[in-house]
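User: Show me a protein chain along with its predicted structure.
Assistant: Here is one chain, sequence first, then structure tokens.
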Amino acid sequence: MIGRALGVALTALLTVGASDLCAQAPNAANADPVEEYRIGPEDTLLVSVWKNDAISKTVPVRPDGMVSLPLVHDVRAAGLTPLELREVLAKKLAEYIPNPEVSVIVTEVRSFKVSVIGEVVKPARYELKSRTTVLDVLALAGGLNEFAARTRIVILRTDGKVMRRIPFNYNKVIAAGGERDNLSLQPGDVIVVP
């Protein structure tokens, strides 16, 4: 009888523990989606075509967003993910090569640039290599100086032909619970610290 009661209690404990773990585990549907990297001007790409060394090469993305390759000539790369560009190139090369196997690898990220201006120690344009938050870039800029208006920082972001102003309150972000307000930056963002 004691063994049965102990078994029931243990089962209940394990069930509660498992449901608590499930409640705490991040759900893939609820998690923030990680955006795939989009190729930008000045990035360097390695384009490989299987069993075709003449077409396989490392190419820079020109300022107009295009890459030049034998047979296909100019192809728009900027704005596409490496997988999307691979599909475009495979389709264009299929006119010349039966079933081309193409791979596209970003070997050098040079298009992710953000600027910091105003009341920081080192205002400048910074070339980043991966997703970065506002606090990360402010740290790169040496931090805020003593005259910075910490509650009135603004991120200027170009959205098509429109410039958006995104407010950023430094004091709120560094306070307990403010971590989710530490925005991820996008290429071309300008952080203005009045």
